[in-house]
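Lab meeting, action items carried over

1. Structure of the two-component assembly. Owner: GW. Status: complete.
Input record:
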Amino acid sequence: MAEIRVDNLVKQFGSFTAVRDTSFTVEDGDFFCLLGPSGCGKTTTLRMVAGLELPSAGSIRLDGEDVTFKRARERDIAMVFQLFALYPHMNVRKNISFPLVSMGVPKAEIRRRVEDAAKTLRIEHFLDKPVSGLSGGDRQRVALGRAIVREPKAFMMDEPLGALDAEFRHLMCGELRALHDRLKATTVYVTHDQLEAMSMADKIAVMNDGMIEQLGPPQDIYDRPTSMFVGDFIGSPAMNFIHFDGAAIAGSTEVTIDAAVIPLPELRETRAPGPLALGVRPEQVVIGDPGRQGGVLPGEIFGAEYLGTNQIVTVTTPRGMLKVRLPAHLRAAAGDRVSLSFKPERLSLFDAATGKVIRSALHEAGAARRAHG
Amino acid sequence: MAEIALTQVSKRFGAVKAVDDVSLTITDGEFVVLLGPTGAGKTTTLRLVAGLETPDDGRVFIGGVDVTGLPPAARDVTFVFQQYSLYPHLSVFDNLAFPLRSPTRRTPEDEIKRAVGEVARLLRIEDKLGNRATQLSGGQMQRVAIGRALVRRPAIYLMDEPLSSLDAKLRSELRIELKRIQQDLGATMLYVTHDQTEAMTLASRIGVIHQGRLVQIGSPRSIYEDPADIYVATRLGSPGINLVPRALFPEIDAPAAAATIGVRTEHLAIARASNGAVTGRVNWIERLGDQNHLHIAVNQQQIVSLVDPDAGLGVGDDVSVSLRRPLFFDAHGQRVR
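Predicted assembly:
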């Protein structure tokens, strides 16, 4: 297994820059997600690491060795694609053996490694069946088998679950993560699905427009987005943004919106008066009766979406629509007038002109640890 | 607007019974969602109501009139498909106006203008009315397709996975819009999906379809809290309901026939084990931001629980597990009380 180190990677296709100056390190044994909307450069980045594209600039090191200009097959990396093509005329065992046969591995060794892989994936019982009758999930397991049987230094996965339906995808996420915990293999995983990334990754790099917007553990990215893009992209529903004009003053522990004073973590930066946005996660909004003590924003319930485990309530306010996550048993009916306030501990404040966060006590390491025990 | 009634409707395709003895009444102004996986028979049911298929057995009534033998055009229904089918050479306005300009309808032009404008406003595509259909994004095209259904006021609206080709963000926006529009219009709506979130959030009542049969119908809350069998219990809830052998929790009072215990993730009370009261061990924490899914091994069985990110439990911790509001199922998967 191996550490992957990427420095100042650039990829241009003609006049289009797909990846600009991207650097990151995937530590040995980490499950690392490249996450972003389509066209953000995540797949191109993965393909460069795998050796399927040559970078326009920058370097890639695998376990300290510079592999930037090495061919894919010289890198000892296994790739798993979406809709992995299995050989339909071969049975499961032959499909999984295939990479080893073409590498000239001795027969007894192949047998051992295929059976080990099958055991790891829990597919021993259909090793000798044809692939044609398999379900989508089982096909994906066989595809994974073909990757792990090589015992490579690292795995590259490009939306391997993209073709599966939502429920099954979540199940496979659990399986993939469990597999990763057994193999402890360095894995780079590309997805546009934030839930997949959140549920599996040790670290997530959120990409936008060819650059990494933010890199960190999932909870950190959720709690402390460094840009409005990240706050919006991560979370379902996304972070709410309350736009207002005002100033940010280092040392202050509040902002004022429409004469209402809203407490938040102590600011560490100052901004001259201008457009700001308060970032509020749906579970940080408190709903109460209109006119109550402590209410900072009046609103009217637009609709409530019951989800069983909880409900998402949409509230119309003078500052736009807000999504609120509430326990499922609370009554929330369209047309109800309410008063909103916000739990201050994890509110974010953004410079709405640049979209970047204004740093506060929330961004200090100590606060991060305190917030999560 | 009108009521829809199906009485003992069946439809076979060769050896496959696509719809098997379905009886269902959708009252005027109700939003009924048929939920089921691919191949369950939900789209066929919708097509039977639309008149695109004829039942082998049973009758279909719309507004009290037996329409079983009537062609689609005579039924006053409108159908939105999963794949939008717009006229690429026409503007958004003309696409929306198309149903009103049909020779059988002949709506005055100022009335068309008013109706199209109103629908465009509801769907937030007013600024696109002059564009060609082909200049729109996928989400905008699907809104035009929905708009074309809304522009004429039929007795009933039939929708077959109209949001499934859209990305997650747009889907959630249109979901709440669609519900709002349906309520404002007082429309009778029959809607088909395999997406439980859509079913939960849109429906006045959800009909769960399994192998051509209507297994259970009721409000989202009643289906979620009071499922008739294991199949229905596993249809709703994300993460899904935990199903464990009854023997795993011998201390719980259960009906004699209970073979399986079902417990929703939010009905598990998890605490750090103290004084040797260990029932399980945390073996994976899935962090989803707003909450964590705690995966706990209890005697080789995996269960999943929701916990606050601040709960302070870690992988390898021993925990005690207690169940609130467990559901019991017999050996055949039927609910026992």
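2. GW to write a short summary for the group page. Key points so far: The longest helix of chain A spans residues 166-183. The CA atoms of residues 134 and 364 of chain A lie 50 Å apart.
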